[in-house]
Design goal:
alpha+beta, Hypothetical protein af1432, globular, disordered C terminus, about 425 residues
């Protein structure tokens, strides 16, 4: 499979993965195996679909990284979210169906457990459904993906309960789904200012965390509600909201005071926000390349803002260059990504595409079956690197570990001591 822009789609291409309906994410717009024609391509463009996955026989082995079932579960979760947000927007005191949300999360997580090779974030599944729904569904997806890699860390960070309960991610998923529900209770001009500036110091916008907690308190599990309240806390104590204390003035939480669920959601929230930078009012939202958003997230980790162990899990589930995506190397060679190593995220294994325009021709027009060139493992090359990805120059966006364990999920802080081999990160 290959991931391409809808602008590059041509008739007779065959979809490798389903395309969800942008406004009704529980429904499929196009099914896997559908052959594109002029009408379907035009319809996707009109509805705001940006990228699609198409069949490309030499890369069929990459289908293991994708799951129609996980995509469908994501769509169901987004649809549930849209309904919830509509309810809250019309009545802030409306009952929230916690059991339904928990069941949605449970089904979503089970799909990831059943198809672990496909439990990776390959980019946006939803291209519309409104920015709040799309962001919240991405944060839920990312949070669950990371949590399933952090089972040992969840146990060590939740020592007062049994291991089985500590690893249960339902409440995390519910908290992630609803983490920004308080945005619905802000004045429209506050939300507009936030979308335009992303000024996190704005006290009007900061109220959304407490407003969200007030909306869900008593309606969802306490750990889910606490995650909604504290998803903007920072490891160095510079987040919000401030918590009252018996002795001394109120202050934000810091370090281990922050529940691990809130720390996971914080990383997912920051990463997804960085992927969609602020744009002028009325302008179309753009996505920055994944590698750039990861590098910017890493800067916050190294500044002491975000949990470094959770960031390792992010690298384990979000490849800087997704398998099946086309990249151009610094020597001009066009390749398809075929494998990645979370400990060396910016040095994927790629395979040369001899004729980059080949995949744009309908299969029936090819005189010979398409073939890929030789494999290049960028971990073993210092003379060449990825220069272009996702349609942008990413030559300055690469990042590397400062030491052998910085990105390695097998090394986790357990009770303040560096542990080993608790939850290995599967390469590629």
């Amino acid at each position: 499979m290959l991931r391409i822009s809808v602008d590059k789609a041509v008739p007779h291409m065959t979809l490798a993965l389903p395309v969800l309906h942008p406004e009704k994410p529980e429904h499929l717009l196009l099914k896997p195996g559908a052959e594109l024609d002029t009408h379907s391509i035009q319809k996707m463009r009109q509805m705001g679909v940006r990228r699609i996955w198409i069949r490309y026989p030499p890369t069929d082995f990459l289908l293991r990284y994708a799951s129609p079932r996980i995509i469908a579960e994501h769509g169901k979760m987004a649809s549930r979210l849209a309904g919830c947000f509509d309810t809250v927007a019309s009545d802030t005191h409306a009952d929230l169906e916690f059991n339904d949300y928990a069941a949605t999360v449970r089904s979503f997580a089970q799909a990831m457990l059943d198809e672990p090779s496909a439990a990776v974030f390959l980019g946006d599944i939803l291209d519309s459904s409104g920015p709040l729904v799309a962001h919240s569904s991405n944060v839920c997806y990312l949070s669950l993906l990371m949590a399933l890699k952090l089972d040992g860390y969840l146990i060590s960070e939740r020592p007062l309960i049994g291991a089985r309960r500590a690893q249960n991610v339902e409440n995390l998923g519910v908290g992630a789904m609803l983490h920004d529900v308080g945005m619905l209770r802000l004045a429209p001009e506050v939300v507009a200012d936030w979308e335009r500036t992303r000024d996190e110091s704005d006290p009007r916008w900061q109220k959304h965390a407490a407003l969200g907690f007030d909306t869900v308190r008593g309606k969802v599990a306490p750990t889910a509600a606490a995650a909604v309240l504290h998803h903007h806390q920072r490891m160095d104590g510079t987040g919000f909201p401030r918590r009252p204390r018996i002795m001394g003035p109120p202050r934000p939480l810091a370090g281990g005071e922050i529940h691990v669920f809130a720390r996971i959601i914080a990383v997912a929230d920051v990463f997804d926000r960085l992927r969609a930078p602020p744009v002028p009012k009325g302008s179309e939202q753009v996505r920055v390349p994944t590698v750039r958003a990861l590098r910017q997230t890493l800067a916050l980790v190294r500044a002491g803002k975000l949990d470094p162990v959770v960031f390792k899990a992010l690298l384990a589930v979000v490849p800087a260059f997704a398998p099946g995506s086309l990249v151009e190397l610094s020597d001009g060679t066009v390749c398809v990504v075929v494998m990645w190593d979370p400990t060396r995220p910016c040095e994927p294994v790629v395979q040369i595409v001899p004729d980059p325009a080949d995949f744009l021709r309908p299969r029936a027009a090819l005189d010979d079956p398409p073939r890929l060139g030789h494999i290049i493992d960028l971990r073993n090359r210092r003379d060449v690197a990825v220069a272009f990805a996702e349609g942008e120059n990413v030559g300055t966006d690469s990042f590397h570990a400062r030491n052998p364990t910085e990105f390695d999920l097998r090394y986790q802080f357990v009770g303040g001591v560096l542990g080993s081999a608790l939850t290995p990160a599967a390469a590629g």
